[in-house]
Amino acid sequence: MNKTINSHIEKLIKVLILTKKDTYKIEKISKVLVTALNKGKKIFVYGNGGSYADSSHFVGELTATYKKKRKPLPFFLLGSNMASVSAWANDYNNNDYVSRELKGYANKGDILIILSTSGGNYKQNQSTNLIKLSKVAKQKNVFLISLLGKGGGFLKKNSNFCYVVNSNLTATIQEVHKTLLHSICELIDNKIK
Known about the structure:
By secondary structure, the chain is an alpha/beta fold. Helix content is 56%, strand content 12%. The longest helix is centred in the last third of the chain and has 22 residues, at 170-191.
């Protein structure tokens, strides 16, 4: 058991050391977010499965507080209205709901952050809802930031800005995403009163 735990931690440390070389990219994401917030823009966040849970955590840190008491920030978790999600899934197509939600809420200049361990792939029928969501963002002139892994998939090419974790292990990618999201929270806290 100890060997399994140590192996998991060692893999994570190796990827975090590689990630540390790219901190300027995370600073850039934070600057884009702060600029948008100062202009009164909204930020939408979404991911599937564990990435949805991480998205929810991130939004919670920014609408409530992270390390200091400050005003609530306009971050929104897409797909969190379960009555709407389940009604749409029952009557139409679950794969389209989040895109529909973004169409209804977002305006030009808003930001969408997508978390995905794969980045999506049509041929493999992988995270196609995220691919559709990214296309709606483009149609609405919403700036798309993606935190990805496993080479970045479709979203790497379709994002305005992305960060691809240098790993093919889902758990490691998610753990690095959490570290990056907390770093972004801290950078935002330092700039927003």
